Rho GTPase activation protein (Sphaerosporella brunnea), 787 residues
Amino acid sequence: MSVTTMLAPSTRNSAASSTSSGFVPVSRQNTITSSEGAPRSVRASKRYSVTALYLSMSAQDRDLEIEDELARVQKTLRDLKSKISSQSKKNFVLEKDVRYLDSRIALLIQNRMALEEQNEVASHFDESSEIEGGTFPNDQKTQAYGNLFYLLQSEPRHIAALCRCVSMAEIDSLLQTVMFTIYGNQYESREEHLLLTMFQSVLSAQFETTPEYSSLLRANTPVSRMMTTYTRRGPGQSYLKVVLAKQINNLIEHKDLNLEINPLKVYEQMIKNVEEDTGALPANMPRSVSAEQAAENVQVQAIIEPRLTMLMEIANTFLATIIDNLDETPYGIRWICKQIRSLTRRKYPDAKDHIICTLIGGFFFLRFLNPAIVTPRSYMLIDSVPSEHPRRTLTLIAKMLQNLANKPSYAKEPYMARLAPFVANNKMRINKFLNDLCEVGDFYESLEMDNYVALSKKDLELNITLNEVYATHALLEKHSEELLSGRDTQHLRILLEELGAAPAQVPRKENRAIDLPLFSRWEGNIDDLSAALDITQEDVYFMEAKSIFVQLLRTLPATSAAARRPLNLRKIGDTATTMKDMGMFRKGMRGLELLNQLQEMGVITDQDNFQILREEIEQELVHLGSLKEKVMEETKKLEEVYKTIRDHNAYLVSQLETYKSYLHNVRSQSEGKQRNAGKQQKQQVLGPYKFTHQQLEKEGVIQKSNVPDNRRANIFFNITSPMPGTFVISLHYKGRNRGLLELDLKLDDLLEMQQNNHDELDLEYVQFNVPKVLALLNKRFARKKNW
């Protein structure tokens, strides 16, 4: 078995910290050269490769021993990445519930749901926000499931096959387990690369079973849902924040900028404006016209013309930002683009380059960028839903980018043809960008090394819930006939037969998160690296010596005589053996022993002060020095991503709480009507609760105020709930007995406004933010079980 390096000179020693700071982007790992630029021999390449492997195997353990600044910032980054992975999973689960409840609450608002259905919806709330930890009920089952999930993780073809079998109704449950549990460590190279291998298998099958390339990756299928879900993980969110957030926020600041170019809508607005200004319509302006008549209207054309120019300017700024940030694009997304190009060329050898680019663009824009542009609030790129005009502009920008990436079709929306110059001027530019996206290296050899590392670990485990285990088992069982009909499935067959029938899902409140130990029934731990990786014992000793002396130098005080340049390796080892710390003593002894062994083997000599080894150690230390700045920079970026994900989590939790309270109110009323038909129910009045103008402004409830600054301190609001689901908001001025105005609100109306993206609630003097009002009412009144 051959393992050759893919590390370029600038990163070839970076694996010393790759495990602790996140895997090195493989897109920058290309060639095998020496520090002087000359090609290395295969044996030398293997040595560098295995050195990288050895140094990365126990990076986290070493960080526990080494207390220098680099170790501390690496640990901070590692912890942050773990939090992002964990929080991404929680958000995915919450989003599933919100999607389900969105549709059910819509029926409640329209009074189309029976009490029995309301009870079924209520069952979705029978769980706490956090799943408690626990242990597996049965040790024998623990071992069996540990074998099964190790097989599923390390041989992605099984999951790929399962993904091709499941229905749309089943895919979300499977994706939760696959994307956020089995391969949930989004910044760890082995899991990421195994997940991408699974994608390659799924895409390959999709290409094989799709006769026409024009229909590839278009329909809403389990495969397309997988691809979209992949882009929603931490690295994808980070990219969107960096590339799109500023552009979108700049745009939505212009709330009154109307760039509508649909002639019929422009004509209707023009009619409305004329009526408001003059009170009547002139004879030559009929109220209703066809789309064609509106497009031919001279006044409409005059309104649209400057809008077209501005739209193309805005779209160009979006496009320039996307192209300029090519290197920010997550490696996994670029690698999927590369597979789409490669598979298209193999399956359709006659396909032209621009056709291939439309398929790449179909994934990159349709599944990744455009959803974030159209609904930036759901991607937490902005703080609130944009107002009507910016929202429409963002939709048009997304359509323009999609037309640019794909073959444009104006059959359904002929007015978009007026933007064809944007497509014509940028077609070559976008095709080059889409091809550049694909220019990344592969990871197969580094994955081979990562798998050896996994086999060498004694504590490989998966944090997974009981219901995820049982649901995955149930899907494997349901589709076993198709899954086990392929080649090399005997191991999966054995494990499924031993496990027997899949257990039923436990109630949500009984669900537990467990740490499931992973290990293979058919592969033992790797103890002899030299045999496993087809390298010599000299290589193993060399990489171990390099790792030990790097650790010693990172641990010794900078003022120590042993740390002075030029390095004296024997002096470093001797110094370590005189220290009271037993760890340092053992490393010092082992380092000296390795120097002697390597010298006896003729690999190094003390005549030149062990120059080859010393230079490698120096290079590693230089790299680690520059790595600290990179780690700190990455940490800063990911802190922003984590904050965004946490904010999104809070938004989803608030949404669920609102639904929960609303459902409680509806069910209470329904049950009350059944129990007290014909009787007047006595309702408890809650409130009034008082809020100052300053308080509501600070909390974002007031998003715009017409009250003069010098009077705001005297303004306050009272909110009362005279009956469940009904609220009265009154605006008061200090010193006056009566309120200035009063507004009656129904919870149904607020929820409907939120569903329709109507973000503003106008109180004449102030404009409230609808989601923030709902959150405020939920916080103040939900505890009373009143609405």
Remarks:
- Confidence is low (pLDDT under 50) at residues 1-64, 677-681, 783-787.
- Residues 7 and 29 are 5 Å apart (CA to CA).
- The first helix runs from residue 15 to 21.
